[in-house]
Specification:
Blueprint: H1 5-15, E1 19-24, E2 29-32, H2 34-40, H3 44-47, H4 58-61, E3 79-85, E4 91-103, E5 106-115, H5 117-131, H6 141-154, E6 159-166, H7 169-176, H8 178-195, E7 201-204, E8 209-215, H9 219-239, E9 247-254, H10 260-278
Antiparallel strand pairs: 1-2, 1-5, 3-4, 4-5, 6-8, 6-9, 7-8
Helix pairs in contact: 7-8, 8-9
Length: 285
């Protein structure tokens, strides 16, 4: 069976999984395929004749205009990622590959547009997994160390450090199972997140250890937040049945020019001093 080349080419364009937009030197759209309609939410009659820039939010256009003669864009065979605008006004991340063509002496540009929403969502999820503790949702040790290094390089100073240890975790794991211990860790994380500011670094840095970095805190602010944490634990235990949380705390303050690792060691030492005083005490129930 013989298929006409024009019909075959048209069928391929319509069946393409990516949006395909063809526009002229003036930036006016002359052709879109079916996937373009599905992706942007416009009917093709609404897009043909429109400036291709109308599909791009205003703040994305600067330096990334899609119109203009293809001969002036030497990078048009490469992919560019930017935000596109759907008919309902919502944004979506897209990857656009631009290629110049000449037909009957006229120059056009073919834009192949790929929706990057799922890929971005996966990338964000993988990034989250790489920087957060899976059990508690807090920052993990790697993320904590990065923030520590960044604060040491750029501040703002002073930097408050709070170290927290969940008392009796091994005892709970041994007597009631790891599920009970995991629940105590999650409850500790919820108390910490509710106590500290959203931009403070709140991390689980070990099995039963947590650490907080508080940029721009002075001594009084550090004392205030630790007192708030003590009250938050007390309130949590009043409202929560079953095993009570028991936390050992240690704090330190680093001023500009002082090493954060040294301050971290001081807070850790103070935390373990409190933990020793708790050692042997019966866990509250």
């Amino acid at each position: 069976m013989r298929v006409e080349p024009d019909h075959f080419a048209r069928a391929l364009l319509e069946a393409a999984p990516d949006a395909i937009i063809v526009f002229g030197e003036d930036g006016r759209i002359v052709f879109v395929n079916a996937q373009t309609e599905r992706l942007f939410g416009f009917e093709r009659a609404q897009m043909v004749g429109q400036d291709v820039d109308s599909l791009v939010p205003d703040d994305e256009r600067a330096g990334k205009r899609l119109n203009g003669p293809p001969s002036l864009r030497r990078a048009n065979t490469k992919s560019v990622e930017l935000g596109a605008r759907r008919r309902d006004g919502t944004r979506m991340p897209v990857e656009i590959s631009l290629s110049p063509i000449t037909l009957d002496g006229q120059r056009f540009t073919i834009a192949v547009v790929r929706d990057m929403t799922e890929r971005r969502r996966l990338e964000d999820h993988l990034l989250y997994l790489s920087t957060h503790d899976a059990l508690t949702g807090l920052a993990n040790r790697g993320a904590f160390d990065e923030v520590l290094l960044r604060l040491e390089e750029r501040g703002p100073w002073p930097v408050g450090i709070v170290m927290v240890d969940l008392d009796g975790l091994k005892q709970v794991n041994d007597s009631q199972g790891h599920a009970a211990g995991d629940e105590l860790l999650r409850r500790t994380a919820r108390v910490l997140k509710s106590t500290f500011r959203a931009h403070d670094c709140v991390a689980r840095i070990g099995g039963d250890e947590f650490a907080m970095l508080l940029a721009g805190h002075d001594v009084s602010a550090l004392d205030s937040v630790t007192a708030r944490l003590v009250r938050a634990v007390e309130k949590h235990n009043e409202e929560h049945g079953g095993l009570a949380l028991s936390l050992s705390l240690g704090t330190s303050l680093a001023r500009q020019g002082e090493r954060l690792n040294v301050a971290l060691g001081e807070a850790d030492s103070r935390m373990y001093s409190m933990k020793k005083s708790h050692h042997g005490n019966a866990r509250p129930t």
